[in-house]
Design goal:
alpha/beta; 4-stranded antiparallel sheet; Collagenase (Catalytic Domain); binds zinc ion; 2 domains; Immunoglobulin-like
Length: 411
Amino acid sequence: MKITSNLILLISLLFFQIQGKGQHAECGTDYIHNNRMENDSSYRKQIYSIESQVEAITQNHANNKLTSAVYTIPVVVHVIHLGEAIGSGSNISDIQIKQAIAGLNTRFRNSNGLGVDIELEFCLANKDPNGNSTNGINRVNGSSVTNYSASGIKPTGNTCGGAVETAIKDLSRWPVSNYYNIWVVSKICNGGFVGFASYPVGGLYDGLVIVSTSMTSNSGTLPHEVGHGFFLYHTFNGDGGNVSCPADTNCLINGDHVCDTPPHKQGDCGTTNPCSSTGVWDNSRYNYMAYCPLVNRFTQGQKDRIRATFLVAPRASLLSSIGCGAVGINERSSSNLFSIFPNPAQSLINVKADIKLLGSSYVVYDNTGKTILKGIITSEDTIIELGSLSGGIYLFSVGENLKQSFKVIKE
Ligand SMILES: [Zn+2]
């Protein structure tokens, strides 16, 4: 059974398109965000706070050594179906979900080579919040929730038809500190939207909602909404709803707050950008965060912003989640030349190094990229004292050019 499903997965991976179908105007994220920015002062404060932290980190990108590690984020998928058998209607199959996550990973890892590798991957959780085995997929019949069968889910603050967002999410949700939650639903606003995501503010309901028909391997909606979840705005942010060119005086605070995606209007996807003649126009018009018909890339500026978001609450805690077992925290060094234990650690770590690494230097960076400790690997078993460090995530790099890296968690 496993061999069969893996084979189907492999075959489908070989054939699906790397670029996604365009997003068009069916993303509900900003509708909800703008509403909350206007009416919810604590939300507004949170957004401003995380924005200023992310800006400070991206401005110091040159010092941010953490950009060299691949982050693996545990995902839980809640399928809120209408009572159909597994594999039909809104109750999409395990295979379809696995293909969707695989497709998401090809886009974040830049498999088509057209953009930038975000060095971010998503894994279906294999450990639930109680530490039990799971396939990372929860199925719940949502048809008894008022209005769900007729119109799907209604995002909070929206006046469209549909079931109350929190009532649907309360059917199944896992702690956002350890899992990125994805709810697959039958419809959003009776067909008005194909997806919406929370910007990274945490809380019980943080995550992404996507209609079942868009949870597919070639979906442009999934990377787009995940992009919002990790604090990317639309490339046309600030266009007033396709009305005017976004401000363009300081790219870190205007438009999408990203400097290598030229500002534009939502509807402008042609060969030239009427809003700006500078920068690489293809970075915006082919961007997963645009509404243009063909999307196929993220940029370095977006990567910096996403990775800065992982250095502050609430997304930072995802990096120490054990939701995907060892994968989440014990990244193997690419050549398996060394290992570290225990991890998480308390007062010291043992570094078991291959003989080839003897005499190599090592460096421990904190989460802002600052060097905290350094030394030389002098034996195959080296003990490093962590006693004076505060709790958190550190990056341990060793060897020539410090290319072998490991995340270390200090409790
Ligand atoms: Zn969007």
